[in-house]
């Protein structure tokens, strides 16, 4: 049994763009969260992933020190640097997935937020309220649709669907 995940360039990771008016919000949200989850990055969307805290600097030497004031080894500094780099790389992957599927107007609105969890939360706030309006508008449009006298009933049902 093949347990390899498809490459990140796979069409499985393509999410259609979120339209300006949010009419595809419900399906967009499900698709983007599925893609982010498939990449193992859900902690970055829900805010559970946190940036590692850098070591404090010694006031006299300006070098990083442990909480007890002891100097750090080169290995300890490198390990923390690696953890910080890994956080930024994964957070940036989530940002790119979101930024690549939203409009430029929305991107300009959320780009000031620093981490992907805050960006996603803002996108949700903006579009969650629109969902009800979209449903109301859709119901109104469905109720207003009529099959013309002598029109093609099959085509009319196709439009309704």
From TrEMBL:
Organism: Rhizopogon vesiculosus
Protein name (record): Uncharacterized protein
Pfam family, one: Retrotran_gag_2
Lineage: superkingdom: Eukaryota
